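User: When convenient, might I ask for sequence and C-alpha cells for a protein?

AI:
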Amino acid sequence: MTTSREREIEQVLVHGLCPFVVELTEADPAWPDAYAEVAARLREVLGRRAHRVEHIGSTAVPGLVAKPVIDVVVGLDDPDDEPAYLPDLTADGWDLRVREPGHRCLRGAVCDLAVNLHCYADDSRETVRYLALRDRLRAHPDERARYAAHKRSLAGREWADMNLYADAKGPVIEEILARAGVPPR
C-alpha cells in the first residue's frame, strides 16, 4: 500500500520509487579525493555556470558513518532553466533523477562511488541548510555522534525510496540545525 508521502515523492522522481536498503560504512579517507575529482569534472563541464561546488552530506564529515555515496551541491543561476546546463551534464554521464521546483538531482559515479548531484540556485535556503549541517557536524563531535547513532538506528531496513530514509533523519537534523541557529523549514 502506497502512502501519501510516497505518492508525493513519486511526483518529482524521474524514474519512480526505488526500494533501498540503507547500508552504512565507516568513514573512508578516500571520500574527499573522490569529491575533489567530481568537483573538478563539474567545473570543467559547467564552467562559470557553477557558482559554487560543495561537498555535502555525511561523506563530507570526517569520522562520520555514511552510505558510500558522495553528495555534492552545485549553485546555479536557475536550476529550473534545464537547457542552460542539463544537456552538458547528461552528455557527461549524469542521469536526472529528481525534478522539482528549484531543485534537480542527478546521479553519476566517480572512483567506483555513486554521486548525488544536487542543483539549486546559488543562494537557495536548501544550500544554506546543507552547508550549516555539514559545518556543525564537522565542528561538534557530540552532534556528529548523535547523528551517527540515529543513522545506525535506521540502517539495515528496506525503504520504499531513499527519500523516505532522508525524511526519517529529518527530526534529528532539524534539532542540530536549530542549535546551529538555522531556522526550521
Remarks:
- The chain has one domain: 4-179.
- Strands lie at 20-21, 52-56, 69-76, 95-100, 103-110, 113-121, 158-159.
- The helical segments are 4-12, 31-46, 86-91, 125-139, 141-154, 162-179.
